[in-house]
Write a sequence for this structure.
């Protein structure tokens, strides 16, 4: 979700963002996004034990290319 906010901040002024009135539609699926975030959090210790110090996840619909989760 922060990626979407960052994209909006690059395109619009802070004034426009604070005044509201923008309609933002994404392909993110809340349920899948939540599962992705939970999965990364649940596996944090296992990743750390393998010397991983960061994690990323992108889940895409292979049929149409929509990004359904972005962590």
């Amino acid at each position: 979700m922060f990626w979407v906010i960052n994209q909006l901040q690059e395109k619009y002024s802070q004034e426009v963002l604070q005044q509201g009135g923008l309609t933002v539609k994404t392909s993110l699926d809340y349920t899948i996004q939540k599962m992705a975030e939970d999965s990364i959090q649940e596996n944090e210790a296992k990743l750390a034990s393998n010397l991983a110090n960061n994690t990323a996840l992108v889940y895409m619909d292979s049929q149409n290319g929509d990004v359904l989760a972005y962590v």
About this structure: The mean pLDDT is 90.
